[in-house]
Design brief:
With 87 residues, the protein is α+β, with helices and mostly antiparallel strands. The protein has a domain of 47 residues. Strands 1, 2, 3 and 4 form a 4-stranded antiparallel sheet that branches. Helix content is 18%, strand content 23%. It contains 2 helices and 4 strands; from the N terminus they run βαβββα. Bound molecules: zinc ion (ZN). The site of zinc ion has 8 residues, from loops.
Length: 87
């Protein structure tokens, strides 16, 4: 999606709100904790209406990993987890 191609319909009619966020300081956001929220950049396909949202500040990704509970992938089946290197 960030490369300008819609993953749903393969059209190149993708528009991003990242410039709007940078200029106005306002954006959609999701709560990180009770006191903090995370701003998002939205990518919209104007052909099919598909929307993807990305955390705009990469450093917030590690905060999310610290604070939010991880969604556990299903055990068994064909999914093979990457070997964990917990030292
Ligand atoms: Zn599309």
């Amino acid at each position: 999606m960030k490369n300008g191609i819609c993953p749903r319909c393969n059209h190149n009619q993708v528009y991003s709100s990242s410039k709007l966020r940078a200029e106005t300081g306002s954006a959609s956001s999701i709560p990180l904790s009770y006191i903090r929220s995370i701003s998002l950049d939205n990518y919209v396909c104007t052909n099919c209406g598909y929307v993807e949202s990305y955390v705009s500040e990469p450093e917030m990704l590690s905060r999310i990993a610290d604070i939010w509970p991880q969604v556990e992938p299903p055990q068994g089946g064909s999914y093979k987890p990457v070997s964990k290197n917990h030292s």
